[in-house]
Amino acid sequence: MTQEMNSGHAVAIAFHDLTLGYEGHPAVHHLDGEIEKGALLAICGPNGAGKSTLLKSISGALSPLSGSLSAPRRRDIAYLPQAADIDTSFPITVLDVVAMGLWTQCGPFRAISGRRLEEVRGAVSAVGLNGFEDRVISTLSGGQLQRMLFARLLIQDASVVLLDEPFAAIDANTSADLLALIARWHDEQRTVLVVSHDLDLVRDHFPQTLLLAREQVARGKTSDVLTTPNLARARSRAEAFDRGAAVCARAA
Amino acid sequence: MLYDILIAPFADFAFMRRALVGSIALALAGSPLGVFLILRRMSLTGDAMSHAILPGAAIGYLVAGLSLWPMTIAGLAAGLIVAVGSGVVARATILREDASLAAFYLISLALGVTLISLRGSNIDLLHVLFGSVLALDDATLILLAGIASLTLAGLALLYRALVIETVDPGFLASTGRAGGPTQMAFLGLVVLNLVGGFQALGTLLAVGMMMLPAASARLIARDITSMLAIAAAFGIASSYIGLVVSFYASLPSGPFIILVAGGFYVGALVFGRAGGLLRNLKPKRHLEA
Fold first, then answer.
1. What distance in Å separates residue B187's CA from the closest CA in chain A?
2. Which one of A70, A178, A237, B33 counts the least CB within 10 Å of its CB?
3. Chain-chain contact of A74 with B160 (C-beta, under 8 angstroms)
4. Element housing A124 (H / E)
């Protein structure tokens, strides 16, 4: 079932017998494999398959229950969670939120130079928010908010980009613009991992896919992974939570 | 004539000058902290923390009587224990920050009142709870000025991290570990100011100086910079007006300063252009785009 990535490429992220979960219950079970540098990988699977948990763990926000995960330092990872817990009532402008992306470079004290500020303005315009620089974020629509968060990801300039359901509740126009940014990151040899439920979108735009259902169902070329039998198998394995489950024998 | 009314009380009486300097120092440092407490939806945290200080102040009082440094240091220690303790409980257990803070401060308050009643009368308790802005000595004034300076310097250092942590805590957490220390340092400054405040205005009213100008500013300002400036201006104006009016009307100064701040708040509630009541009554006009 496992289709390993081409060897010979530099590895960005590696899993070894990785089990992730909450309070001892696994959400992702015994995952092995490597993600090469520069990969553009979609992560698919039913609800409860462990997709978000996997991204959270790669971002450094969740420690493994067992096994190991090797990923770049946090500052080299740009992570957009599924429901970004951004407080839109805070009186702050689009430009300032996008400038937050400079945190890893400038930290708490370093001045933001004129050149960097130009980069921030460039990112705002790259996501199609020209003229919105001084708008307070409470006045933005859902799509504009997502564009703003993508501009912040641009500014983070990270070698690994993790996006969790970035196209949920986003219209076709905005999705197309954001997909163009993802393609640009791919061209720049960044490693991009995107969780998505939209299989058509994945087939059209992502060369590689990891199909997850609490464990790896398939991985490799998207057209080889998103097959009817694989998807049926993924559906049958989703969302198993047993309060009385025995201790996993493989963990011993 | 105007001089007699507005300036003379301060020119003629040293205790009024001290009261003004002390309460302005509190307003300058407390109001920006209040702004962040409000934006972080922690408006009641100041109130809870002010109770948390009480057992420390009481222990200081039991050991050394009504004297500045023992009560200040012990109050600060108690406040920091509660701040750190409730932060740790919130991260390590299923309880959220509000529940763990509520538990800590209730225990603290009960402990403080018990300790104070071991020695002394109700009048002493009233001093701890309501302070006396008209009886600031040199040592207290230096303490207040020191706390204000430290707070403003600390906020300047924390500012960027604090804004990011408030707007998008998940973002800060995903880029490193600055979130926890930032929140702790901020709560430390809140405790420091409440400890300073109980010398001048008392624990309960010190919270008012922190929160009322900030709440007023939230109703008026549309961005954080002007919110900080407006809150500080309201705090300073409340101090001055409160002192002058209470001087002529023979009213208690500390509570009256807070009442003036409350008056500004009611005004902002009605007329505030960013979120006041009248804003909803105006005939609606809209633009082309």
1. 18
2. A70
3. no
4. helix A114-126
The burial of A248, by beta-carbon neighbours within 10 Å (0-12 exposed, 13-18 middle, 19 or more buried), is given as middle
Cβ atoms of B218 and B38 closer than 8 Å:
yes
Q: Judge contact between B165 and B93, C-beta under 8 A.
A: no
Helix (H, G, I), strand (E, B) or coil at B93: coil
Spatial distance between the Cα atoms of A13 and B106, rounded to a whole number of angstroms: 48
Nearest to residue A145, comparing CAs of A51, A80, A79? A80
- CATH superfamily for B2-274 is ABC transporter involved in vitamin B12 uptake, BtuC (1.10.3470.10)
Partner residue opposite A75 with nearest CB, options B157, B166, B176: B176
Tell me the per-residue pLDDT of A35-91, one tens digit each, with 9 for 90 and over: 999 999 999 999 888 999 999 999 988 889 999 999 998 889 999 988 777 899 999
Residue with tokens 């500045």: B68
The distance of Cα A96 from the centroid of its chain, to the nearest Å, equals 23
B158, B167, B221: residue with CB nearest A90 = B167
The listed CATH number (3.40.720.10, 3.40.50.300, 3.90.1150.10, 3.40.50.1000) that belongs to domain A8-72+159-171+189-252: 3.40.50.300
Residues of chain A with CATH 3.40.50.300: 8-72+159-171+189-252
Instruction: Return the number of other C-beta atoms located less than 10 Å from residue B140's C-beta.
Output: 18
Look at B172 and A103 and tell me if their CB atoms are within 8 Å: yes
Instruction: Give the type of residue at B158.
Output: L
Helix (H, G, I), strand (E, B) or coil at A26: strand
As a whole number of angstroms, the distance between CA A180 and CA B175 comes to 25
pLDDT in tens, B72-128: 889 899 999 998 898 888 878 888 888 988 999 899 889 888 887 877 665 565 565
Do residue A85 and residue B227 have CB atoms under 8 angstroms apart?
no
Q: Residue B45 is inside which H or E element, if any?
A: helix B45-64
User: Which residue from A minimizes the CA distance to B167?
Assistant: A87
Nearest-Cα residue of chain A relative to residue B94 = A23
